[in-house]
């Protein structure tokens, strides 16, 4: 059993050029699976609004829902660093509320750090949360909580702005930054300029690490899967076949068999 991943571990990995592997998880069985498969960081992402709750965006997700899922994931994670994702409107309305909500992820959820979306515009919030002793991961580029402002889930290509955002969140004290939906060459240049690790999703191969939504990676969803996802399994098809077999077995009397009876 290797020792638990900490934030200094991630800095060392960047220094050594070792890739940081991150995945989302929202429940106990998948968090156990991810934690025991060599993943360094588990994000309890607000993407759960889409892949677990069935919403069409992450906007409806609440603090209480995030804390509920974070508690479950931290119960399962023995090795990976758990990051709790701050939902829409939990850090945008004022610094005090933001710090208090970040604190709930650590105190109630058991997370080691929080993540929030935005660049220069949230640097004050990142600084305040960091000064309160809570590690913050920033998230720039395609930020799903701004879906309406962006006019959809669109690749972000404004290099000057992306670089300025990255440098600002680093200066504000972020321990890492997620780069989502940005061209690979811009992600590479940001990764070279920052001391903190970059974790990419739809940002090419040069980031210090990669993250995907577990439901997309395992094919556990029938929602549209973005181009940047590589599907390593098609579990929904397997599960559907299993449930259909069960239905047929019950209808035909093949289940329960003698071996299932007392
Ligand atoms: O909510 C989420 O899962 C995320 C990752 C995809 C980066 O923000």
Please count the helical segments.
11
Q: What is the CATH topology classification name of the largest domain?
A: TIM Barrel
Q: What percent of residues are in strands?
A: 5-15%
Task: Strand order, main sheet: write it out.
Answer: 1-2-3-4-5-6-7-8
Give the names of the bound compounds: 3-methyl-2-oxobutanoic acid
CATH class of the largest domain: Alpha Beta
Distance between the termini: 40 Å
| CATH architecture heading of the largest domain | Alpha-Beta Barrel
Question: What pattern of helices and strands is seen along the backbone?
Answer: HEHEHHEHEHEHHEHEEHH
What's the pLDDT, averaged over the residues? Answer: 97
Helix content: 40-55%
Class by SSE composition: alpha/beta
Largest sheet: 8 strands, parallel, barrel
The Cα radius of gyration reads 20 Å
What's the total count of β strands? 8
Question: What does this entry look like structurally?
Answer:
It is a single chain. The termini are far apart. By secondary structure, the chain is an alpha/beta fold. α5 links the parallel β3 and β4. The protein has an 8-stranded parallel β-barrel with strand order 1-2-3-4-5-6-7-8, surrounded by 7 helices. It folds into 2 domains: 7-231, Alpha-Beta Barrel (TIM Barrel), CATH 3.20.20.60; 234-262, no CATH class. The longest helix is centred in the last third of the chain and has 18 residues, at 235-252. It has 11 helices and 8 strands. The chain has helices spanning 7-16, 28-35, 48-51, 63-76, 95-107, 123-131, 147-150, 159-172, 184-193, 214-217, 235-252, and strands at 20-24, 41-44, 81-85, 113-117, 135-141, 176-180, 198-201, 209-212. The structure holds 3-methyl-2-oxobutanoic acid (KIV).
